[in-house]
Amino acid sequence: IRMNQEAKGPREVILSEFSVTATENVLLYAALSSYPVRVKIADYDYQVQELVAFLKKMGVRIRTPEFHTLHIEGAKKLKGARHKLMADPIEAGTLILLGAAAKGGITVENVELAYLHLFLKKLRDAGIPLDVSQKGGKGAVQVQHVKNPKIAAIQSWIYPGVHSDLQSTFGVLATQSRGSTLLHDPLYEGRLKYLEELNRMGAEIYFADPHRAIINGPTKLYGTDLGTFDLRGGAALIIASLIAEGKSTISNIYQIDRGYEKIEERLQNLGADITRIQD
Q1: Maximum Cα–Cα distance for the chain, whole Å?
Q2: pLDDT tens for residues 84-93?
């Protein structure tokens, strides 16, 4: 982060990359600063927008004068506020992809559609029938019976692109799709490690480099003992296990709990054979 301390007017922060956490940290710093702060290369994903909405209620003045720019005028003292968090778009997207991988018949409600426009378009482009109903900003997405989906390529990117946190679940869907799918995550290192476990389950996946992989499908997956994974990779492996033949065991599930509350109970309500085992 570079801050120009001598320039007249607002102090300028130029982030070295698009980052939700970095943007939020500067917002929190600027909320009580005695001088205006302008953040450039600011991420504006749903988490940042939620924080902006909350800080405004607490008395902070925040504007977006340019694309990916935030102008913050801090308050001398923050006031109390009441704010209701939105339903998590990533959780909704994960469950929608579960419906697609499981060949349809799932309805996901309370979906924040404004953050999933390109995501839903990619599913429709793949031939996955969706019935989307909307009331206000929220909606319900019904994944109907899926026949022979085909995904040419999925590239994750900053908002409003396809979220990197949904890339791993797309990887599972690609194993059940016709032909080859290019999966590209240019943002983060190590996000494709879960694909190695899908290969162990019977998938046909080739790594081009640390950020790209080619997935050939459809392939039959088989249950196995799976290792320790991050939050999104763990959720993807749950979905792979549900559509695989046989039993799978996934460890280190506290990572999955960080993003999906009581996921096994909700999947059980859909008819899934899944059990949480306490050591």
Answers
A1: 66
A2: 999 999 999 9
Euclidean distance between CA atoms 89 and 55, whole angstroms: 21
Beta bridge partners of 13: 3, 39
pLDDT in tens, 102-160: 998 899 999 999 999 999 999 999 999 999 998 777 899 999 988 889 999 999 999 99
Contact (Cβ atoms closer than 8 angstroms) between residue 87 and residue 138: yes
**In 3D, which of 135, 161, 158, 223 has the Cα closest to residue 23?**
158
Q: How far apart are CA 120 and CA 268, in angstroms?
A: 25
The whole-model pTM stands at 0.91
> Residue written as tokens 């988490």?
47
* Preceding amide of 149 cis, omega within 30: no
CB-side neighbour CA atoms (13 Å) of 31? 20
Name residue, tokens 């790594």: 207
Q: Where are the beta strands (DSSP E) in 21-137?
A: 37-40, 61-63, 69-73, 106-112, 130-135
